[in-house]
Design goal:
Shape: globular
Mean pLDDT: 90
Number of strands: 16
Helix content: 10-25%
Radius of gyration: 20 Å
Oligomer: single chain
Strand content: 25-35%
Distance between the termini: 24 Å
Length: 258
């Protein structure tokens, strides 16, 4: 299936100020940007046709692939002054770069790349800043078995804050970590059918408009994942992923697992 990745937002919570022009998907985790890690995940499961919804910082994403250096993440031999790669990352990938606007909502970005899906009945979609070890094949199988029109991964709350149960008099009844609440939050990693476009108004949002409507109809499937899932929405979260990479703790890199 084709994979649509939303790469065009400002990423204000990640940027270090107005002088930081590198878009969030291009922030590094190890020697490669977040976007590369997300794409390698999909490619590991055989989904190697990508449609990138570009906007803010599009030139950085384009230049990364136009000047891609395989030697940064593959073993190689230099023999007689010539570089011989022992592996490859993206040689069999197809990547379509589409300008979907700087200010566009995610639903609008999806609308603007519809023609690049070639009418495929089903396709995958995701944010470009969330890493996971979820079994994608199982996720897709359960979506099809559900008979739903769309699915999203859902994960336990990631917040480190606490919820407080308080009486009208001000007496605190209980304090519960958010992560222990019986709640699930949107984890991205969507499996979508073409029907999603019928529910996306111009300028609309994928989750609030399309998925919200399907949920009201009982036609949205939630794949519950209890394993590794981590966003890189802020500088701190990205730094934590980078530290994990350098320490050798890389559960999202399923392509390197035995």
């Amino acid at each position: 299936m084709k994979v649509v990745l939303f790469c065009g937002g400002y990423g204000m919570r990640m940027r270090g100020g107005s002088g930081d022009v590198v878009p969030k998907p291009m922030q590094l985790v190890g020697p490669r940007p977040l976007l590369w890690h997300v794409m390698r995940y999909y490619a590991h499961y055989g989904h190697k046709e990508f449609v990138l919804c570009l906007g803010y910082g599009a030139e950085h994403i384009k230049n990364f692939f136009l000047t891609y250096q395989e030697s940064a993440s593959n073993d190689f031999v230099i023999r007689n002054g010539q570089l011989e790669l022992l592996g490859t990352d993206i040689s069999d990938w197809s990547i379509t770069f589409v300008d979907t606007g700087v200010e566009s909502a995610i639903g609008e970005r999806l609308r603007r790349v519809r023609d690049h899906l070639d009418g495929d009945e089903y396709f995958l979609a995701n944010y470009a800043d969330v890493l996971t070890d979820a079994p994608l094949d199982t996720m897709i199988e359960r979506f099809h078995a559900s008979g739903a029109a769309a699915s999203m991964m859902v994960v336990p709350p990631q917040s480190s804050f606490h919820c407080v149960d308080i009486a009208p008099t001000g007496e605190v009844k209980d304090i519960i970590p958010v992560a222990q609440m019986p709640l699930w939050e949107n984890g991205g990693y969507f499996v979508l059918s073409q029907e999603i476009f019928d529910l996306l108004p111009p300028g609309g949002d994928l989750v609030a408009d399309a998925c919200g409507t399907l949920a009201g109809q009982g036609r949205l499937f939630g794949y519950q994942h209890m394993g590794f899932w981590k966003p890189a929405d802020t500088f701190k979260e990205r730094a934590e992923l980078d530290d994990a990479y350098r320490n050798g703790t890389r559960p999202w890199m399923v392509w390197d697992q035995p």
